[in-house]
């Protein structure tokens, strides 16, 4: 009969040691290797495989390490933990080290039975990471079992990559382009949302009636909605009918998803208001129905909202956990590397005579077209209006866009009514602030009424085609100069333009014009979202080892929202002036965000001072937008109807007066001044509401002191960045890697690992790429957790750091490992750091955790590593506190230690270990009580309906604990020189 093993006990099977997990049953053991994670769990059947009870062997006195052995082994052990005993189950198993401020939404979530949060942090703060932390934690705790992320199709691949690479969640894409393949693999009657537990879904795709019903019926118990503000409309919504109708369909979908009170729901948006109070209320109603009508002017109402709403600016988190936040000191202070500011400049250009003549003729044609259509009826007038706007916008974009537009039939020409003409024409000619409506909007719009085209248009198109190149295109010539200047200053810019033909034109014209060290690529809507990311990655990887290489990315607005480009680019040129300032904010936000290595991002806005359009849009729309941003310190989204009201007036004025009219003439149009006054009032009102909301709804649910306490506990259990950097640097050097540390103040360094043991190379190749290791390239190790491909972050959760720690730990436990072994389980050091004989123990504890959840109690076995220290001999040990024990890791050898003395000292200590068992056990009991208190504190149940969050919670230590390392520190005393000594470097 097979022996019975209790959960938490150690067994030996398949040549290694394992921990028995609570999921084990009669005849089957569910095992996790010591220090392993969830991915390493295996089922073993003792009836068919040899399984024996294991006792963790004591260290051997014959295998002594040097003065760094204890620190290296401890850090390697802690990095290897993937099932820590603290209240945050996910932090030990993710590949990103979250900033302290990013823990706030997680703490808010853990205090709710059903998580309902609206996360509205500023652009670039890291809402995706904040959502990922909550998702991973809920899955790890068993509070959720399935996940759906609803987002724009353009961001689906990025969400998939973020979840996979940072959080270990492999999600399936559900898009218009993938659904047929997914449905072919289904069984009869099976929903793809049941078949695939983790999905990333296009919001526009899933809102259609057929797919919406299937999704609602089989909706996962955890839903994340990105850009949630696009899923609600104001009660008095104005603007294109298609816009409000689309928002209404999305809203109806989310309303039905939110109806299930047991479903976790995370709504993400940087612009929860968008200038409309009713839209904000509708958004709150999705979080909790009662929030839609709560009195937000009352303290009680704001307190109720604060439980579910977090909104912070960069200034709120740039310096966090400081004395200014109410803490006693700055010991836990954290500075987040946002760019300090944006260097911005408006750069004018003037048309060449030939281009000016072409534009004048185009304006004359447009005037005639509008006047003629106005006599034919409302439908014809609206078709002509959108065709004219398309013509003028493409004219000032590039000769390539102009030629394409002049030869293409207008989209609105197929309209049967004036309303249809607006619905078809507006999206392609206006710049909506709704990022979800950008997909497919970068094609050059048509201006012709039919397939044959107007002879005047064909003649204009022929003339436009003759203006290619810097000789006739002054805008292109100016761009070339701006790019050369940025490149000379070491910048790699992104050039944003409105239309696909313009992007393609710029790429062909700039080729070989910017120097031999500049690489150029373009990304437009002609590529799928995945192909766009692949092209960007290819450009970023080209000659990556050459620091002199600069990159220029030419892109349309298919990349202006959601895609993270801060790792490879640090400047933005607005080649085409958008007709909504919010679009510029979205473009600049691709590089001006967390992880940008430059302290200053450069932004150049190009405008034609004599084309009759750009200058007026800049003066009316952008000047106001910038003033509000300067006054409030935040960007207020410009409502689409506000922006279109201004640009419509500009076009009307241009048709009446031509390019030469004065700015004042813009306000002389019938009703124009009244219209501008109304726009001014609406915009000021939106700005005031945004300012009020930022102060009124500031995050108050979690006090910085609470965050600081948990950050301190996490760092004590898992280690901090400085410890990890020191470990990686020392381990690589000991393993005979070629390390280059410039000591330039950044903390970054590089390493070539071609000379390291095969086990190290194999481990790093698996996470960094085989070619990097095989070709012995330099691997950058960076102090920032925001890294590019082929780089490693100096954080404990980075896969490359984990691979290195795994090798160091395994080689320390196996004395027969060939080659260098940085860490050892024993050591004797003569040092000035102690006045009496002192011993440091590295102890691994295992705990049984009973965690309550909505689906019942979960039994978990978790691990923790602690340092214990005592003075004197084991039989008369005088135990030190935790700080004194940790301080011993910094002790340095002050003299050589006689080899025989070292062996005698360590042997005497090892022989006395049984007498220390009682204290080691008591320490484990105290640690279990502290962990229990931490779990209860994080899940603080301050109301009766939340009491079950902590009911039944229990933390019990597993005995005996494992003594992994024993290190003796001796005070320096005069000794007689001998030929047989152990040097400080080896002691």
Q: What keywords describe this structure?
A:
alpha/beta; seven-stranded mixed β-sheet; seven-stranded parallel β-sheet; 33 strands; elongated; 40% helix; 987 residues
Question: How would you explain this protein's 3D organization?
Answer:
The chain has 987 residues and is an alpha/beta fold. Helices cover 40% and strands 17% of the residues. It contains 32 helices and 33 strands. The strands form seven sheets. Strands 6, 26, 27, 28, 29, 30 and 32 form a seven-stranded mixed β-sheet that branches. It has a seven-stranded parallel β-sheet with strand order 9-10-8-11-12-7-13, with helices on both faces. α13 (353-374) runs antiparallel to α17 (455-465) and α14 (378-397) packs antiparallel against α15 (399-406). 49% of the residues are buried. Mean pLDDT is 83; it is low at 661-667 and 978-987.
| Overall pLDDT score | 83
Structural class: alpha/beta
Helix fraction, binned, reads 25-40%
Determine the N-to-C terminus distance.
48 Å
Number of strands: 33
Number of helices: 32
Shape: elongated
Low-confidence residue ranges:
661-667, 978-987
Oligomer: single chain
**Mind telling me the C-alpha Rg?**
32 Å
Describe the main β-sheet briefly.
7 strands, mixed
Report the sheet-strand fraction.
15-25%
């Amino acid at each position: 009969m097979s022996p019975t093993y209790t959960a938490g006990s150690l067994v030996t099977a398949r040549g290694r040691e394992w921990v028995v997990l609570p999921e084990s049953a009669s005849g089957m053991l569910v095992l996790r290797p010591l220090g392993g994670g969830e991915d390493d769990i295996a089922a073993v059947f003792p009836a068919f495989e040899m399984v024996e009870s294991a006792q963790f062997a004591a260290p051997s006195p014959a295998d002594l390490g040097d003065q760094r052995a204890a620190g290296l082994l401890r850090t390697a052990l802690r990095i290897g933990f993937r099932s820590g005993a603290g209240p945050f189950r996910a932090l030990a198993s993710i590949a990103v080290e979250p900033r302290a401020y990013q823990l706030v939404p997680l703490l808010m979530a853990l205090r709710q039975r059903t998580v309902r949060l609206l996360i509205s942090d500023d652009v670039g703060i890291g809402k995706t990471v904040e959502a990922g932390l909550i998702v991973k934690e809920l899955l790890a705790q068993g509070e959720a079992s399935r996940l759906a992320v609803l987002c724009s199709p353009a961001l689906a691949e990025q969400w998939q990559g973020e979840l996979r690479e940072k959080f270990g969640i492999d999600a399936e894409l559900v898009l218009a382009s993938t659904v047929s393949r997914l449905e072919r693999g289904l069984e009869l009657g099976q929903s793809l949302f049941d078949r695939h537990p983790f999905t990333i879904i296009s919001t526009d795709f899933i809102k259609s009636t057929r797919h919406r019903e299937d999704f609602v019926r089989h909706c996962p118990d955890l839903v994340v909605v990105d850009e949630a503000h696009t899923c609600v409309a104001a009660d008095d919504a104005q603007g294109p009918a298609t816009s409000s109708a689309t928002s209404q369909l999305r809203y109806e979908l989310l309303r039905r998803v939110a109806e299930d009170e047991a479903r976790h729901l995370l709504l993400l948006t940087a612009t929860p208001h968008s200038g409309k109070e009713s839209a904000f209320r509708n958004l709150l109603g999705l979080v909790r129905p009662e929030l839609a009508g709560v009195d937000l002017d009352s303290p009680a109402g704001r307190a109720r909202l604060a439980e579910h709403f977090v909104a912070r600016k960069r200034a709120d988190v740039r310096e966090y956990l400081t004395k200014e936040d109410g803490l006693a000191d700055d010991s836990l202070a954290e500075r987040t590397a946002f760019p300090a500011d944006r260097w911005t400049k408006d750069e004018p250009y003037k048309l060449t005579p030939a281009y000016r003549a072409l534009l004048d003729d185009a304006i004359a044609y447009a005037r005639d077209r509008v006047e003629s259509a106005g006599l034919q009826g409302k439908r014809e007038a609206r078709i002509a209006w959108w065709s004219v706007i398309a013509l003028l916008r493409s004219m000032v974009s590039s000769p390539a866009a102009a030629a394409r537009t002049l030869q293409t039939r207008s989209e609105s020409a197929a309209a049967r009514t004036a309303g249809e003409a607006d619905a078809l024409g507006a999206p392609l000619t206006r710049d909506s602030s709704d990022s979800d409506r950008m997909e497919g909007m970068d094609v050059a719009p048509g201006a012709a009424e039919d397939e044959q085209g107007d002879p005047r248009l064909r003649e204009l198109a022929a003339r436009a085609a003759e203006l290619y190149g810097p000789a006739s295109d002054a805008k292109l010539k100016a761009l070339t100069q701006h790019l050369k200047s940025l490149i000379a200053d070491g910048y790699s810019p992104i050039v944003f333009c409105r239309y696909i033909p313009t992007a393609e034109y710029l790429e062909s014209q700039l080729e070989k014009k910017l120097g031999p060290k500049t690489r150029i690529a373009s990304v437009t809507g002609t590529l799928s979202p995945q192909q766009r990311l692949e092209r960007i990655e290819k450009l970023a990887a080209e000659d990556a080892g050459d620091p002199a290489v600069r990159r220029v990315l030419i892109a349309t607005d298919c990349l202006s929202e959601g895609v993270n480009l801060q790792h490879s680019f640090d400047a933005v040129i607005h080649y085409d002036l958008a007709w909504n300032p919010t679009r510029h904010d979205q473009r600049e936000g691709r590089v001006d965000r967390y992880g940008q290595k430059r302290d200053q991002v450069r932004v150049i806005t190009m405008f034609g001072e004599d084309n009759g359009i750009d200058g007026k849009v800049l003066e009316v729309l952008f000047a106001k937008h910038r003033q509000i941003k300067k006054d409030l310190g935040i960007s207020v989204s410009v409502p689409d109807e506000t922006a279109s009201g201004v640009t419509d007036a500009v076009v009307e004025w241009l048709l009446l007066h031509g390019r030469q009219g004065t700015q004042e003439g813009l306000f002389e149009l019938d009703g124009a001044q009244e219209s501008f006054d109304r726009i001014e009032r609406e915009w000021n009102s939106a700005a005031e509401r945004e300012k009020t909301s930022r102060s009124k709804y500031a995050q108050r649910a979690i006090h910085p002191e609470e965050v600081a306490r948990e950050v301190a506990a996490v760092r004590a259990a898992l280690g901090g960045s400085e410890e990890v950097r020191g470990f990686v640097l020392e381990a690589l050097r000991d393993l005979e890697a070629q390390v280059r540390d410039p000591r330039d103040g950044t903390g970054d360094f590089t390493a070539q690992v071609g000379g390291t043991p095969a086990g190290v190379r194999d481990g790093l190749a698996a996470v960094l790429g085989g070619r990097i290791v095989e070709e012995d390239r330099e691997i950058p190790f960076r102090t920032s957790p925001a890294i590019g491909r082929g780089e490693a972050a100096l954080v404990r959760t980075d896969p490359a750091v984990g691979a290195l720690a795994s090798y160091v730990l395994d080689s320390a436990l196996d004395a027969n490992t060939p080659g260098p072994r940085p860490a050892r389980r024993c050591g004797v050091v003569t040092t000035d750091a102690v006045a009496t004989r002192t011993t440091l123990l590295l102890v691994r504890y295992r705990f049984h955790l009973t965690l309550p959840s909505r689906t019942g109690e979960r039994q978990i076995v978790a691990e923790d590593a602690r340092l214990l220290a005592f003075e004197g001999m084991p039989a008369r040990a005088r135990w030190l506190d935790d700080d004194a024990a940790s301080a011993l890791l910094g002790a340095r050898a002050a003299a050589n230690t006689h080899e025989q003395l070292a062996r005698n000292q360590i042997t005497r200590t090892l022989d006395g270990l049984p007498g220390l068992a009682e204290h080691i056990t008591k320490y484990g009991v105290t640690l279990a009580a502290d962990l229990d208190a931490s779990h209860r504190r994080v899940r603080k149940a301050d109301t009766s309906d939340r009491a079950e969050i902590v009911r039944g919670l229990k933390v019990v230590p597993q005995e005996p604990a494992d003594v992994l390392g024993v290190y003796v520190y001796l005070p320096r005393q005069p000794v007689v020189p001998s030929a047989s000594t152990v040097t400080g470097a080896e002691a």
